[in-house]
Amino acid sequence: MKNNISNYEKMKNHMAGVFLQYDQERMIQKFALEHDKNYIYIPFVGRRYRIDRLKGTVTWSNDFFQTEEKADYNEVMTIYDVLCYSKENCYLADEWVNVGSLASIQGGTLAKGNDFFQNAGQYFDGKTNKLARACEILGGRKIKKGDVGYELALFPFLPLSLCFWESDEDFPASLQILTDKNILDYMHYETLMFAITHILNRLKDECEEG
């Protein structure tokens, strides 16, 4: 029987091998990561993940790895990219910018007015209480912007802010994602899309469970 593996799984397996080619001690020191001889641990959007230091595979757990789940494509690609490809001396500018205004991604999937954010805005319309609760479950810190505004830790060293406005008689619902001005020193543009997609999926899941 032929073993059908999706292209996403193939890419995950490939990137696990790529990860193993990088200096793990260097990334541990760079981002002050918890580790032991078998795993590197990294918090990501309110969950605890670990990377197998011999296999390169990524899993997550909510119970200190008494049980664990395989990380999906968006999760692993974001984690690998930040650990392996972030610039050597990356640092936060401490200046928030809308992801759509980053010069190098004008016209990209995350550009202002793109369906990516319009669809998310429509989904959360009428769900402000559920969205706020979901942000808090993900470890968010409330900020005074929008009808719902939270700063979320993409990683402990890399924050992101979500701002949502409900629709009214004049304007449709609006969702904005703000990142540090230097976000692309930490990850590629395509990876930023994976990371934001992951966050929005997590928030939708929590809204549906709440």
Question: What attributes does this structure have?
Answer:
210 residues, alpha+beta, TATA-Binding Protein, 2 domains, four-stranded antiparallel beta sheet, 6 helices
Describe this structure in words.
The protein is of the alpha+beta class and 210 residues long. The chain has 2 domains: 7-85, no CATH class; 96-209, TATA-Binding Protein (2-Layer Sandwich). The protein has 6 helices and 9 strands; from the N terminus they run H-H-E-E-E-E-H-E-H-H-E-E-E-E-H. It has helices spanning 7-19, 24-31, 73-85, 115-124, 128-137, 189-209, and strands at 39-44, 47-52, 58-61, 69-70, 96-98, 141-142, 148-155, 158-165, 174-180. The strands form 2 sheets. Strands 5-9-8-7-6 form a 5-stranded antiparallel β-sheet. Strands 1-2-3-4 form a 4-stranded antiparallel β-sheet, with helices on one face. Helix 1 (7-19) packs parallel to helix 3 (73-85), helix 3 packs antiparallel against helix 6 and helix 5 crosses helix 6. The N and C termini lie far apart (42 Å). The relative contact order is 0.15. The mean pLDDT is 92. Residues 25-199 form the DUF3786 domain.
